[in-house]
Specification:
homodimer, alpha/beta, four-stranded parallel beta sheet, 17 strands, 42% helix
Chain lengths: 376, 376
């Protein structure tokens, strides 16, 4: 994988770049739609690629390990061939899921024992095993195994957790170097910076991970309950340390505002379930502001979903029709809203990129932010 | 609306025709996907038109009357503009739904009082009101209001019900003639033949409806619990009476086998929820036979969904991937299976049409039937 830093905003940290994978080029800043179980919920791959313009999607090691399982993925020849997605894939290591989804857990030095949220069966993830599993999945970008403490964790817990995450990173990297890709194309491994909201811990973690000659670095453990301002200041602390010539991925973030603030602070890659999850609940992020499509006020609004369309659905369907579908519990509502929202997120990061390259990001950001965060 | 009978199979009753509506030409035999609430569940309109090739969809007066309601549909300028579907629409009169879905009911000479399945609110449908509602919906083809007795109804009930349906038809027709389309294009009204499985009642009903100068005629009250052979013989009885130069619509039918048998007996139009409902449950109708995609045997079958593709999803996705989605409860499974199945039904009726025009229907039918009804 090769990252070319193309441009940095004058007097700022916002960056535009190009990430070349063996499954295509990804222009940054980029939003990666979340395809937990190798499906971005409610969106056909063709529409994800051709309409929403997604160049890379995220899948979850935890979910794919449980279903369909490593054997099926290996027989398929990796996740791309399994699900029919020819562009890039990044896999989360499963750390976040075993701590949040799996109902039992026991964290030891060795790793984490957890109970499947599907059938309660007992499994163990270790730094080595999650690398092996990610080799079997065959993502272009793999993530290190980390513990992800809550945003309210005290300093003592945060320090212990960080040290464990660093020791796990050592083991992940060793396993990464000991093993080969299974499907003939390169797989990168991104270390993850932790440290809750403690600037010194974040700095220490950023320094630690920077010693690994990785193709990119991730910032984890943010947007997990801490105030947004703390998140932004942690990003600043971390990005002051991380190598400037490598992509930086802010995990699981966030709202359109979060993303623009993070781009301004030098983040290149994002993922978040909001476009699809909120879409399923009837929330639309549009170029004119935020819409709760279930509101009575849209009942006879026959105007397009978004007058500045980011997806073909925006002009194909009206607000009144989408409201009718949502109120009637029709699955088409979730499909339309999910595709629109994913397209909106890719549009937003694409626009940010364009303005960075034009040296107009600083002027554009407050204007677009005011516009798209309005409640309609 | 104009129907041109293009060809009838030599020595048989199978027919090919062209139905011209103000929302496009519909070649027959035709399958009309069911869009109950003005959405074919799980399928984007673009894919329904361009991929599955649907030329006409069915919507339900009962559902649209309750949600979004007549006022919204009128403000939108009719159902086509409301839902963004530019091709033809047929609306069922709501008779079947008030008897099957609405939990309370009282049938009188006047009409039917029912409780909404959504909120229990009380409503009255009369022959006049369903014509008015269908005028507001703006379907290209409207259906008469009928009582639909079960397939096991005794002769006495069947006779009384039939006579009521005929008196209701008189009132529907009067209301139809008294009223005008609201959106500037012609709306046809199809009478419905009833009579359960009693040949003399079916014949009497077919004669009765034939006196109305309608653009087409429907056969109702079949596939409601009677043996398939009874259904086929009722179709023969009815089609021997109905005018040969008008389209014949067999309501709510059915399996691929039912449809081919009915085409052979001179039916031109079909609708059924099977492609979408069974699709949501993991059943695929393919050119090679019927698949229950949830079966373990597909877990590592990475071949296309259908080797003779009827939809773009057939080669975009493998059986193993679709099984994974279905087992994981992912909505994409329902989307893929629904689109495929609807495309299969339109493909099947399109193939039947082609073989009728080629004078090869009689030879083709048993071969394709054997092939597509296999359990894989």
């Amino acid at each position: 994988m090769f990252f070319e830093l193309q441009h940095t905003a004058p007097g700022g940290a916002a960056r535009a770049g190009r990430l070349s994978t063996e499954h295509g080029v990804v222009e940054t800043p980029v939003f990666m739609p979340v395809g937990t179980a190798a499906t971005v919920k409610g969106v056909l791959h063709r529409d994800l690629a051709d309409d929403a313009g997604a160049r890379i999607v995220l899948a979850n090691t935890y979910h794919l390990y449980l279903r369909p399982g490593v054997r099926v993925l290996e027989e398929a020849g990796g996740v791309h061939r399994f699900c029919g997605w020819e562009r890039a894939v990044l896999t989360d290591s499963g750390g976040f899921q075993v701590f949040s989804l799996a109902d039992c857990r026991k964290i030891t030095e060795e790793g984490c024992r957890f109970a499947s949220h599907i059938d309660g069966s007992s499994h163990m993830f270790t730094p080595e095993s999650v690398i092996d599993t990610q080799r079997s999945i065959g993502a272009d970008i793999m993530m290190a195994f980390d513990e992800c403490p809550p945003g309210t964790a005290d300093r003592e817990y945060a320090t212990r957790s960080l040290e464990l995450t660093h020791r796990w990173l050592d083991r992940c990297w060793e396993q990464y170097e000991r093993t080969e890709p299974k499907y003939g194309y390169r797989q990168s491994l991104f270390p993850i910076v932790q440290g809750v909201v403690y600037p010194d811990l974040r700095e220490r973690s950023a320094e630690y991970v920077s010693h690994f000659p990785a193709d990119g670095y991730a910032i984890g453990g943010l947007a997990v309950g801490e105030p947004a301002e703390d998140m932004y200041s942690m990003i600043e602390v971390v990005n002051a340390v991380l190598p400037g010539d490598k992509p930086r991925y802010l995990m699981g973030v966030g709202t359109p505002a979060n993303i623009l603030e993070a781009i301004e602070r030098g983040v290149d890659m994002f993922d978040c379930v909001m476009p699809t999850r909120n879409g399923r609940n009837g929330m639309l992020f549009t170029t004119q502001g935020v819409i709760n499509i279930r509101n009575e006020r849209w009942a006879t609004d026959f105007t397009p979903l978004d007058p500045a369309p980011v997806s073909f659905v925006d002009t194909a369907y009206s607000k009144a029709y989408l409201r009718h579908l949502a109120i009637s519990g029709e699955m088409l509502a979730a499909q339309i809203a999910s595709l629109h929202n994913v397209a909106f997120y890719t549009w937003l990061t694409g626009e940010a990129r364009r303005h960075i390259l034009d040296d107009t990001f600083a002027q554009w950001k407050p204007l677009i932010l005011e516009k798209i965060t309005r409640r309609l």
